[in-house]
Design brief:
Layout: H1 11-14, E1 24-26, H2 27-38, E2 52-57, E3 66-70, H3 96-99, E4 103-104, E5 115-116, H4 128-153
Antiparallel strand pairs: 1-3, 2-3, 4-5
Length: about 150
């Protein structure tokens, strides 16, 4: 079966540009990730290393109200969990932000908007350009359909 064209199948093109600065993680999710890493021998190169740094408060996008950034492999990045093949080494427990990228969804009780990360705009080969274009096209088509239906009922 052929794979779908997606972010995961395009990593050889973009080289995981979205992971170059690390990501924000809810502190509770960071505990799960740290336990996952420390319990597995395939991550022995990360055992004893600082996996997270730089705390912040954010009650709109993180359930605990506190978030922490993933550490960087070097001062210039990328995320400490990014493999040499540009794939996330902790994919099974990857941060919520990564799973929803390029969107950042606020908590249900927040009045903050869904945000879209514009980091991918630097790389015209990134599949999210197609995602954004398709989303905008769909919105316009839906508006036109509603307008057409509204004019029929008037």
């Amino acid at each position: 079966m052929k794979p779908y064209r997606s972010c995961v199948t395009n990593l050889h093109i973009c080289k995981a540009n979205c992971c170059k600065n690390g990501v924000w993680v809810d502190v509770e999710q960071a505990k799960v990730i740290e336990a996952y890493v420390n319990a597995r021998p395939e991550f022995s190169d990360l055992h004893g290393k600082t996996l997270f740094a730089e705390y912040d408060d954010d009650t709109d996008y993180f359930p605990s109200g506190k978030c922490i950034g993933t550490a960087l492999a070097t001062p210039d990045g990328p995320c400490i969990f990014l493999g040499s093949d540009y794939k996330c080494r902790i994919y099974e427990v990857r941060p919520h932000f990564c799973a929803d990228y390029p969107f950042m969804h606020p908590l249900a009780d927040s009045n903050k908007p869904v945000m879209i990360d514009n980091m991918f705009e630097e790389d015209k080969n990134c599949i999210y350009h197609e995602l954004l274009s398709a989303t905008l096209k769909s919105i316009e088509e839906e508006k036109a359909e509603r307008a057409a239906q509204s004019s029929k009922t008037s």
